Amino acid sequence: MDSRKDDFDVIVVGGGPGGYVAAIRAAQLGMRTALVEKDRLGGVCLNWGCIPTKALLRSADVLRLVRGAATFGVDAQVLQVDVAAMVARSRAVAERLNAGVAGLLKKNGIHVLSGHARLAGGGELRIEQPGGASRGVRAKHIILATGARPREVVALPPDGQTVWTYRDALLPPQLPASMIVVGGGAIGIEFASFYRAVGVEVTVVEMADRILPVEDAEVSGHVAVSLGKEGIAIHAGAAVTSASRRDGRWHVILEGNGNHEVQAEVVLVAAGIVGNVEDLGLEHTAVKVERAHIVTGAHAETAEPGVYAIGDVAGPPWLAHKASHEGVLCVEHIAGIAAHPLNPLRVPACTYSHPQVASVGLTEEKARAAGHRVRVGKFPFAANGKAIAMGATVGFTKVVFDETSGELLGAHMVGDDVAEMIQGFVIAQTLESTETELMATIFPHPTMSESMHEAVLDAWGRVLHL
Amino acid sequence: MATMLRMPEVAASATSATLLAWNKQVGEAVAVGDVLAEIESEKAVVEYPAEAAGTIGQLLLAAGQEAEVGTPIAVLLAPGETTADAAALLATLEADAPATATGSGVEPGPAPVPALESVSTQLAGAPEPAKRVLASPLARRLARERGIDLADLRGSGPHGRIVKRDLEAARPLSAASVATAPSGESAFREIPHSGMRRTIARRLSESKASIPHFYLSADCRVERLLALREEFNANRPRRVSINDFIVRAVALALHEVPEANVAWTDTAMRQFAQADIAVAVATDDGLITPIVRGAEGKSVSQISAEIAGLAERARAGKLQPGEYRGGSFSVSNLGMYGVDEFTAIVNPPQAAILAVGAVRQQPVVENGAPACGSILRCTLSVDHRAIDGALAARWLAAFRKAVEAPFALLV
């Protein structure tokens, strides 16, 4: 056996947005790098998550726009909502990007190994290849980026037919007349938004006292009202206790806020995720697992020297960009480049429902609980010229500052395309701007981003257009 | 032409000062006499007035930062000039010869000094030229709040930029909060030193370490002074204090014994022409000693009014340097706090300080019979380099005479 061929500086296990980015960075730094993937390059993000859902939600946006075309003086009519065609487009988008990742890895000279990798201890990996053959490889550094999968709800085990996970929701076997979405987080709300737009009767069940519970309370409230107007029923503060299928419908019993029953043809389970920590050979290492996630240090290192974990498998927030960032910082740390630990307060998060949600940092509530004397500013899109012209007056921008230091503790946006704007605040945080620099920044007119400027001004009692 | 504004020498011996706040921002018009900034010198906050009209072109020193006297702190543009003129002026500055180290955080950097001097200082192993401190706006703000000098920190951001986490490593908690004590120690608070606190510490340490002190005490009978003060204050809206009389008595004693109105310098004895009496005033930030100048020529009520005004400005931190610099003799009175007697540390460059206690009733022997007397115990601390024991005793006798025969204080 050619030992050189099977010896690497870095082997990344998992080809999602954490893994393949880590591999590219390692290759950039001159490390001999391999990536093991048992399914499809790009991971859930690209194949079953971020990207294909955005393709579907875009279809919903187009539908919404055409339906409201008369408002803009355009006489148009929706003759047919072809969900199959929407799904086909979504798959084509994922396919295209999947090929793109393969190209990027090739370009960077990364060895892509197909199969299921298991740690064998001492820097060794056994790879079970698709044909059944097995192969041993070695690396000085092994980065686990195996991702996560949906958390199961005991009463509702997914079957792909009438109890769906996100994956089924991306490839619906048929369009149901009604759907219960269990879980009011980002994934649940995005699918609720899509399926409602294409005509499904949607009920959202959330255990916390409000949907999007990690978002600022005002944002959650605003989204709940908007979804309610679209005809989505929301049951917050409600836990699923039991479910039974009768007459072609699921009857789901909810507890909390008084027991009651909700019914639908299909249930989509989106109640959080758990890390893919099983069958990785962790038992051959000192790697510690807690609550279904690998325990890691500031630079993604595990308890086993030479083994690292990044992305969803290493714990929340379960976001592709967090995984990519951790991949880069982990590899740079390995290469001896000073890399700073991830600051969770500077990880933005977006929900692509209608209306969209984008946020970074502390909510007002958490900022106060952390002992900050806060200054809060808010500016509604209804007072923004561009938003009015676009017919996009739903939502607002909210900022939370520490009064004494002027630090931007958090920013919370709801409205059209806010996911494209939030990075303005993230950059401000990364550069450690205070309110002074944000107020002194010139925002182009007319744009919806002016609401960001105005919200900052509002926090300091200087709002201009309110 | 654009003018460079430099850190003024706000106190005689000060080599540096802290810029507390800018009252004008970039682009603001400035008229002659407008207050540009507030500068904290050794002992007080001083307003920095504009000497010429114009527009602020650039601020070179952030509020909260300290810089050496003479360091450029701002660029003032003449009417019609633009930021390009400011940039041109700054370019000449940067192109200048190597410079001495300046205070922290000076942007864009070195203050020019004559080339010859710089060569010699460099040969002498002088500090590196001050570098521009790279720090995020948030780090600058936090440093100012917590009294941390950015120049002391090593930045962990891109290109050594100081960012928030570097401040957290420097000092875990803000000054006002309770610090976590290492195990076994009690909790404590760390309050950053003010400029005034540092000055008190430095000057008094120097004084006690370098001035050979000796002390003389005297009991003064003050029945007549108390009676006179009562009479004096009757029907006056502004009452004078015992201390006002004492300052007057000190001035007259200095006038009568001018050899004691001196200061030690390495080259010569400096004898003062008038009695400039520094009066210790306690403020929230610490002790400051504003000066009643030429007190021998002022009436008790003038002295009283002057001390009241000085004390008020001292407590507001608004004393001008001329109001507390120099002086030939200090008076420190803790009588109002019920202190019977104490000794004070000489306040350099002065050569003596009188510590005044409280008036107390105590038995005395008068004409061979016991009686009740009102006694004020005063202790004179003296710089032995400048004043010998016999001279100090002569001065103290003159002082006691003035206090005990107080009508002389009124004429």
Q: What can you see in these coordinates?
A:
The complex is a heterodimer of chains A (466) and B (411). Chain A is α/β, with parallel strands linked by helices and 466 residues long. Chain A contains 13 helices and 24 strands. In chain A, strands 1, 2, 3, 4, 5, 6 and 19 form a 7-stranded mixed β-sheet that branches. In chain A, a hairpin with a 2-residue loop joins strand 4 and strand 5. The longest helix of chain A has 25 residues. The radius of gyration of chain A is 23 Å and the shape is globular. With 411 residues, chain B is an alpha+beta fold. Chain B has 3 domains: 121 residues, RNA polymerase II/Efflux pump adaptor protein, barrel-sandwich hybrid domain (OB fold (Dihydrolipoamide Acetyltransferase, E2P), Beta Barrel), CATH 2.40.50; 56 residues, Dihydrolipoamide Transferase (Irregular), CATH 4.10.320; 198 residues, Chloramphenicol acetyltransferase-like domain (Chloramphenicol Acetyltransferase), CATH 3.30.559.10. Helices cover 29% and strands 25% of the residues of chain B. Chain B contains 11 helices and 20 strands. In chain B, strand 12 and strand 13 form a beta hairpin. Chains A and B meet through loops of A and helix 3 of B.
Question: What descriptive keywords fit this protein?
Answer:
heterodimer; A: 466 residues; alpha/beta; FAD/NAD(P)-binding domain; Enolase-like, domain 1; 3 domains; seven-stranded mixed β-sheet; five-stranded parallel β-sheet; 13 helices; 24 strands; 30% helix; globular; B: 411 residues; alpha+beta; OB fold (Dihydrolipoamide Acetyltransferase, E2P); Dihydrolipoamide Transferase; Chloramphenicol Acetyltransferase; six-stranded mixed β-sheet; four-stranded antiparallel β-sheet; elongated
